[in-house]
Specification:
Layout lengths: L3 E3 L2 H17 L15 E12 H4 L6 E3 L5 E14 H4 L8 E6 L3 E2 L4 E7 H4 L5 H9 L4 E2 L11 E4 L6 E17 L5 E10 L4 E11 L4 E7 L4 E3 L2 E6 L26 E2 L6 E19 L8 E8 L7 E18 L5 E6 L3 E3 L2 E2 L3 E5 L4 E7 L3 E4 L10 E10 L6 E5 L3 E19 L4 E10 L13 E2 L3 E8 L5 E10 L5 E3 L10 E3 L9 E8 L5 H5 L5 E10 L9 E4 L3 E11 L1 E3 L3 E10 L8 E12 L4 E13 L2 E14 L3 E2 L5 E3 L1 E8 L2 H9 L2 E9 L6 E2 L5 E12 L3
């Protein structure tokens, strides 16, 4: 507020004359304590002002006038900071998983081969008289003599197996069936099965007794046997009691055979029928036809770890976006079918359709399985019911038909896969103690009223409300660092301390879909808010760090949708009920008493008359200035009056009920008179404090009225 008051020596006398005339005809102005008299003294008015708090404080969005003329400071920001779910729990990139499926033992189809060993071949190496006797009776019904063991084995080449050429067997049997189609019994038959190509004996069967027209079976274990498909039987050591003599157990040498026991002898028809059958054979390597396998190469359920943030124990996760990227390499020389299943995963509530993959012989497959929307149950591992994905594999080998292929049990299918391009939409379980940052930011309060105060402001009962919205189902604690900075650069931290902790714990939803709308109140009981506001702050900087869950105690159920967030805002409503030691209100006016003013004044005094409607005591300060330019103002002199105004009287609630007056006279010295001559501006400042009156509530109609004049005795030539 600027006023202009111009004087010259000539105008002084004109004013003096006018004042003398006015005071002879009018009553005295009660607002002026300077009363001209009919002597060479005259009064020059400098300032006549009525400063109300309403003029000082311009109402705006931050300074609100209530209906009762009381005032409050307000400031709101609905988003100091916002924390998204991805700042609290972030699903890391998943490690590659390598699955190795060995071909293992291969089932070989059972086959049966047979051959006849005729009597003629069997008797070639028995004693000649026995052989000749049998040959002599060929085609007749006659006596069949007893025989002694042959001197050389009878060799019987068996037909080749057609389902393999050579195999190393891990299990199974070769079953031999011997049918005696000769009309006499045989005893002590020793049969050795020989691998012709590998020149090894596979096994031996001993038949103690086989009656005529009877069949005897026995088997040879093939476990650990390397066998070709070319076998032969070596039959040795056999004897026969013949068709028999008379019923004398000790017949004399000239005994006559019993005709009732004569048999038909056909040396080229009578035979041993030899049948060799494989049973339940499995091979570890070889060259064979691979049939349909009764059991898959691999058929099992397993769990793999789902990578999560440290300390988390997740139970379920829904992935809005995810690809399963896989590469499959096969060293197996047959076509392999791989079925990949997610037994406990669903999409839109339905089971996930298995992924069927065909790998060609010695082939490689690279592909991507899109699983957008999949929900994984991560609790399937009974020993660790969290962070585990249930996966099932079924790996089978296709049959090769009539083709023989080479194989080895150590050949394998290797699958390398990972979950890629992951975005989750929902997750629950326990998120652990995850740290997050509140980035450094600032608020500009833009409260011009505070520019009038350079310090010492104490709000009687201030509160700052931290309003928050929280839809994330996890306990959140934040260490919030709020620092106020005054216009002079002084700083003060608000230092929030609750139950010995410098963190604020916020409420959180207990069920998905719930939103917590609440507030945390910062007051003088849990912070240094009074020191913080006493700066007063021109702006506020804030930053901090947060932590999910409580480091101690039983873990609680956590959950979050990707759209959930925690938002913190501030709402500051401060009624101007305060203490202060440095509240200033002022007015500046233009003056021009002229350079000759001090030369023409013998003596002068400053007259001040004031009415105080503020509940503050006040000191006066008058500053004489020479304003050379708006950018260059020189303070010529300062006149300070301490304790000039006594605080207005207030009632029990701090509202003014009675103003106070004061009248002052200050003698001016030569330097001060000279400053008045040179000054072109006068600033009147009232510096108020509530130290004596305590807490005061401010109203817009509070005022200070002041009248200032110079009483001077002038030189008259």
């Amino acid at each position: 507020m600027m006023r202009k008051f111009t004087k010259s020596i000539f105008s002084i006398f004109i004013i003096l004359f006018m004042l003398l005339m006015a005071f002879q005809s009018c009553k005295k102005d009660l607002n002026k304590i300077v009363t001209p008299t009919l002597n060479p003294t005259m009064s020059v008015p400098l300032l006549n002002t009525n400063l109300t708090l309403g003029h000082l404080l311009e109402q705006d969005s931050n300074l609100i006038y209530n209906s009762d003329s009381s005032i409050k400071i307000v400031y709101s920001d609905d988003s100091l900071f916002s924390i998204g779910v991805d700042e609290i729990i972030e699903i890391p990139e998943q490690e590659e998983v390598v699955e190795h499926f060995d071909l293992g033992k291969v089932e070989i189809d059972n086959v049966s081969i047979n051959e006849q060993v005729v009597l003629y071949d069997m008797i070639q190496n028995i004693p000649s008289h026995q052989r000749d006797s049998i040959l002599a009776h060929d085609g007749t019904v006659d006596f069949f003599p007893a025989t002694d063991p042959p001197s050389q084995p009878v060799l019987v080449n068996l037909p080749e197996f057609n389902n393999f050429s050579s195999v190393v067997l891990s299990e199974g049997y070769l079953v031999l069936s011997i049918t005696n189609n000769i009309r006499v019994p045989f005893q002590n038959i020793n049969i050795v099965i020989e691998d012709i190509i590998n020149s090894i004996d596979i096994g031996t069967i001993l038949i103690p007794q086989i009656d005529s027209m009877a069949t005897v079976k026995d088997s040879i274990s093939l476990a650990g046997v390397e066998m070709s498909n070319s076998l032969r039987a070596r039959i040795s050591d056999f004897t026969s009691p013949g068709s028999g003599l008379m019923a004398n157990p000790n017949p004399p040498p000239d005994s006559i055979p019993d005709p009732s026991k004569f048999v038909l002898v056909e040396v080229n028809i009578d035979n041993f029928y030899v049948e060799a059958t494989t049973s339940n054979i499995k091979a570890t390597s070889g060259f064979a036809k691979i049939p349909y396998q009764s059991k898959p190469i691999y058929n099992n359920d397993t769990t793999i770890g789902f990578d999560v943030p440290s300390g988390s124990e997740l139970q379920h996760i829904t992935l809005s976006k995810v690809n399963l990227i896989y590469e499959i390499n096969s060293t197996i020389k047959t076509t392999i079918d791989l079925k990949l299943m997610l037994p406990d995963a669903t999409i839109d509530g339905n089971p996930v359709t298995p992924r069927n993959i065909t790998i060609p012989p010695l082939g490689t497959v690279n592909d991507t399985w899109n699983l957008d929307g999949v929900e994984f149950d991560l609790t399937t591992d009974p020993l660790k019911p969290y962070n585990a994905v249930h996966i099932a594999y079924e790996v089978t080998s296709q049959p090769t038909g009539e083709n023989l292929v080479e194989f080895d049990q150590n050949e394998y299918v290797e699958m390398i896969y990972s979950l890629d391009n992951i975005d989750f939409s929902f997750v629950d379980g326990y998120f652990g103690n995850q740290l997050f940052e509140v980035d450094l930011d600032s608020l500009d309060l833009n409260i011009d009223f505070l520019d009038q105060i350079s310090g010492g402001l104490i709000f009687s009962d201030p509160e700052i409300s931290l309003n928050y919205s929280n839809s994330i189902g996890v306990p959140i604690a934040v260490n919030l660092n709020m620092t106020g900075k005054s216009k002079t650069g002084k700083e003060q931290n608000i230092d929030i301390l609750i139950d010995g902790e410098d963190t604020i714990r916020f409420e959180y939803p207990k069920i998905p879909g719930e939103i917590i709308l609440s507030s945390f109140i910062i007051n003088k009981e849990n912070s240094k808010i009074q020191d913080f506001l006493a700066l007063p702050p021109k702006g506020i900087t804030y930053s901090g760090a947060g932590l999910t869950n409580t480091p101690i105690g039983t873990p609680v159920y956590n959950f979050a949708n990707i759209s959930d967030k925690f938002t913190l805002g501030v709402d500051m409503k401060l009624p101007l009920s305060l203490e202060t030691s440095d509240l200033e209100i002022y007015e500046t006016v233009d003056v021009n008493l002229g350079d000759d003013f001090s030369k023409n004044v013998e003596s002068a005094s400053l007259k001040i008359n004031a009415i105080n409607g503020f509940p503050f005591s006040a000191d006066f300060l008058l500053v004489l200035k020479d304003s050379i330019s708006p950018e260059n103002i020189v303070a010529l002199d300062t006149i300070s009056v301490e304790g000039g105004l006594i605080a207005a009287k207030t009632n029990a609630v701090g509202k003014v009920i009675e103003t106070t007056n004061c009248s002052l006279t200050i003698d001016l010295n030569d330097h001060q008179l000279d400053s008045f001559s040179k000054a072109n501006q006068l600033t009147f400042t009232s510096k108020m404090s509530t130290y004596e009156s305590g807490i005061a509530k401010l109203y817009t109609n509070y005022y200070i009225k002041a009248y200032i004049a110079i009483d001077g005795k002038f030189k008259i030539d």
